[in-house]
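In response to reviewer comment 3 from the previous cycle, which asked for concrete evidence that the modeling workflow produces usable outputs, we include below a single protein chain processed end to end. The sequence was submitted unchanged, and the resulting structure tokens are shown without manual editing.
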Amino acid sequence: LLNQTDGIEGASRLQRASIRDRNAMAIWLPTLAEPGAAFIYGPSHLQVFSELLRRKLGGRGTIAYFEEHVSDRLRIGHLNYKKDRRGNPLPATGFELTAREWARLGELVLGSGSYRGHQIVPANLLREAFAGSQANLSYGLTFWLNQQAPNGREMDMERMLDLPWQNAQWTDACICKDAPADMVVALGSGYQRLFVIPSLKAIIVRQGSNTKFSDAHFLRLVLGREG
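The workflow returned the following structure tokens.
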């Protein structure tokens, strides 16, 4: 589910505010490909995961669980979850963070799951988020990866995601050939970015208002590798 290769329809319509129960809608979506065979990006996978977590928690709210175990410990509060009429959060999008708050997630990654002396996520579990799939080596568990640099093909990931999933070509994809291969990226809608580069101990937050830009060009400028 988290690497979006389960074969389920991506279903961007799940983001509509008018939907009464996103979880119920998501679990009834059709499968379009065999599990593991294709990368189909969309909010459905995280919505199904949210329902699975809700059931594993015995009906306890997934928001309360996330806040208790992660966001509150990172001192990130007042998140906008874009709930449906049943109270189900929309985990795929809608979070509004300041640059400093987003950078704290970067600190968590740099610290292998530890934040300011407190282990919030087990290091071995966090490492799993940075492994690509056979269908798309440039995407882990909700993180985008640059592991095919410096020999990969630079892509505008958001433009690629606008294509029908059958037409997207993820072979040898990378974000920036001149950025380290260990860079991981949280890619937000409207060209919001969190770049984390462990080998440089670097965290870069880029925010904007649907302003298009080139990840590769931006990173070359920031890292002093332009030209």
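The beta strands are 114-115, 118-119, 144-145, 153-154, 173-174, 184-188, 192-197, 202-206. We consider this sufficient to address the reviewer's concern, and the full set will be provided in the supplementary archive.
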